[in-house]
Amino acid sequence: MTFYKKCTDSDSILNKRNNRRLKFATDFDKSIVINSFKIRDWKQVLPNEEWNIYWSNTLNCRTLFNHENGYRFQDRQLINHFPNHYELVRKDLLVKNIYRYQKNLEKAGHPLAEKIQETLPSAHKVTRYLYLDFIPTTYVLPSNYKRFVDEYHRFPQSTWIIKPCGKSQGEGIFLINKLSKLKKWSRESKKCIQNNLPSKDMYIISRYIDNPLLIGGKKFDLRIYVLVTSFRPLKAYMFRNGFCRFCSIKYNSSVSELDNMYIHITNVSVQKHGEEYNSQHGGKLSLKNLKLFLEGTRGQHVTTRLFENINWILVHSLKAVAPIMSNDRHCFECYGYDIIIDDNLKPWLIEVNASPSMTATTMNDEILKCNLFDNILSVVLPPSGIPDARWNKTPDANALRDFEILIDEDSILNEDLILNEDLKVKRNT
Ligand SMILES: Nc1ncnc2c1ncn2[C@@H]1O[C@H](COP(=O)(O)OP(=O)(O)OP(=O)(O)O)[C@@H](O)[C@H]1O
C-alpha cells in the first residue's frame, strides 16, 4: 500500500471555507465505521488519497509510521492507533511491561509496590503486591519454561491456560493441569534463544482463574472499552456501556471438562458455535445490568469497590506502558479490555485488544457499537469538528457523551503527586 498524498493544512482550511467535506479512509468494510462518518457528512476516500481521519488496521498504521515510507502527517490528520500499540496488546509484552512497572516501583521504594504475605488454603505461603496484583501469574513459552516448571511444582493442583501470542478470538487456547501436556515446550526451551522467536511461535501460560464469579451458574468476562488520546500526559476515557460475555454452558471446574471451551472460554467467536448459544442476546449482558445485579445480590458498597478496582487496573496497565509508547499527537486508540471477576469479587486483567470488533452480533450490539464509534469521534475531535493534532485534547464535558474520564494527567502536574493520589484512592477503597 502507498501513502503518498497528504492532506495539507491549507487544503483543510480551504475545505472548510469552501464548505468542502472532511474525508475519512478505512481498511474496514464495516457499516458501523462507514456510517458513523457518513452521518457526519464526511466523504469516504481511499487510504492513498487525502484524508483527515484514517481508521486503519494495525499493519497499515505501522507502515504509515515507518520512516522508510517517507509519509509525513499533517496537523489536520488523525489515525486510530499508536504505532507501537503492541506493547499493550501483545499478550507477552503486556505481561512483561506490567512486571517491569511493578519492579520499577518496588526498586524506587514506592508505597504502591507494598507487598503482603498470605497463606493459601493449601497452606502455601505466597508474597504478593498489595495494590498491583492484577494479572494472573504468567510465563512466556518456550523461553520461561523452566521458571514455569518451578511454579508448577509449587502449586501442582493449579490449572493453567495456554494462549498463542499471535492469535485472537480464542483460537489455539487450551487448559492443562499436567506438565506432561507441555513436552513440546520442554524440548523447545532447550533450543530456544530468548526473544528470538517470532510472536506467532510464542505462547503465554497463565494461572487459570478457576473460581470465576458465576451468574446463572455460567462464567463470563467483561469487555470494557478504553479510549486513549495521549500517553504522555496520560489521557484516557472509559466507555460506560461495556458488557459481559457469557459462556453458553454452566461452569464446571472438573478435570474431565478442561477441554470443553463452551465452559471456559467466553469469546463470542467460540461460543456462537455451541448448541446452547442464544443468538437473541448473544450471551451478553450490559455492564449497567451487571452492576444492578451485584448491588442487589452482594450490596452496594462491594459493588462500588469492585468497579473502582476495575478502573484501577485500567489506569495502571496504561501507566505501565506509557513511558515506552510512541506518543504521536496524531494518534488515538480505543482498546478493548478483557477482565474476569473471581468469586471474591477481585477483578483480573486478562487481555487488551487493539482492534476491538466492529462487527455486531445482535441488534443491541449494533446500537452499542454505533454509539461507541460515534462517541470516539466526539472525544477525539476538537470543538471545531475538524481534526487538529495541535489541539490540547481536552474535550468539553458534553463531548464526552458516554465516556467518563479515567485519568487526565494534565490536571495533576507532578509525577509523585499522581502516584500518591492513586494510593490515596486505593487506600480509601
Ligand atoms: N487466566 C485466565 N483465567 C480464566 N479464564 C481465562 C484466562 N485467560 C483467558 N481466559 C478466558 O479465555 C478467553 C480468551 O482469552 P484471551 O482474551 O486472552 O484470548 P484471545 O484469543 O486473544 O481472545 P480475544 O479475541 O479477546 O483477543 C477470555 O476471554 C477468558 O474467558
UniProtKB/TrEMBL annotation:
Taxonomic superkingdom: Eukaryota
* Pfam families noted in UniProt: TTL
Family assignment? Belongs to the tubulin polyglutamylase family.
Query: Which compartments is it annotated to reside in?
Result: Cytoplasm, Cytoskeleton, Cilium basal body
Gene coding for it: LOC113395133
All residue ranges annotated as the ATP-grasp domain in the record? 338-381
Grouped into one coarse class, the protein's main location is cytoplasm
Q: Which InterPro entries match?
A: ATP-grasp, TTL/TTLL_fam
For this UniProt record, the keywords arranged alphabetically read as follows: ATP-binding, Cell projection, Cilium, Cytoplasm, Cytoskeleton, Ligase, Microtubule, Nucleotide-binding
Q: Per its record, how is this protein called by name?
A: Polyglutamylase complex subunit TTLL1-like
Keyword Signal tagged: no
